[in-house]
Amino acid sequence: MVNDLISDSLTRIRNAAMRRLDVTTLMHSKSVEAVVGILKDKGYVDSFNVIEEGVKKTINVVLKYDEDGKTVINEMKRVSKPGRRVYKPASEIKRFKNGYGTIVVSTSKGVLPNDKAFELGIGGEVLCTIW
């Protein structure tokens, strides 16, 4: 049984990218689906779809590579973990890696990328960073 679905999903995407796979399968939760949606919007993954198999749901993620065959994801890190939650105000999540990276933040308005959270002026729990 997996306790932290977000870190499991990030690890599955990272491992699939290292092996140059086209598609990887993740366990479904609303927060994982929101994080993968942000990855798609920011251009880190090509597409994703939720597959329902009876009661069980999974997410198929199509990975994205550049013209040289290298993954477009340089690094993915889980920041807030079940044993140590990390919260940041809006002023501290303005930019990441000079605007080349993305911080995924769980706010009162839902799971948002750092630029949207800063624009709305709300902080929250820092789920992960991607660049």
Question: Can you put this structure into words, describing what you see?
Answer:
- This protein has 131 residues and is an alpha+beta fold.
- It has one domain (5-130): Dna Ligase, domain 1.
- The protein has 3 helices and 8 strands, in the order αβαββββββαβ.
- The model has no long low-confidence stretch (mean pLDDT 92).
SSE blueprint and pairings:
Blueprint: H1 5-18, E1 23-27, H2 30-41, E2 45-53, E3 56-63, E4 76-78, E5 87-88, E6 102-107, E7 110-113, H3 114-120, E8 124-130
Antiparallel strand pairs: 1-3, 2-3, 4-8, 5-8, 6-7, 6-8
Number of helices: 3
Question: Residue share in helices?
Answer: 25-40%
Number of domains: 1
The largest sheet is: 5 strands, antiparallel
C-alpha end-to-end distance: 29 Å
Class of secondary structure makeup? alpha+beta
Strand content: 25-35%
* Oligomeric status: single chain
Kindly report the average pLDDT value. 92
Quick structural summary:
The protein is of the alpha+beta class and 131 residues long. It is 25% helix and 34% strand. The strands form 2 sheets. Strands 4, 5, 6, 7 and 8 form a 5-stranded antiparallel beta sheet that branches.
Kindly list the characteristics that best describe this protein.
single chain, 131 residues, alpha+beta, Dna Ligase, domain 1, 5-stranded antiparallel beta sheet, 3-stranded antiparallel beta sheet, 3 helices, 8 strands, globular
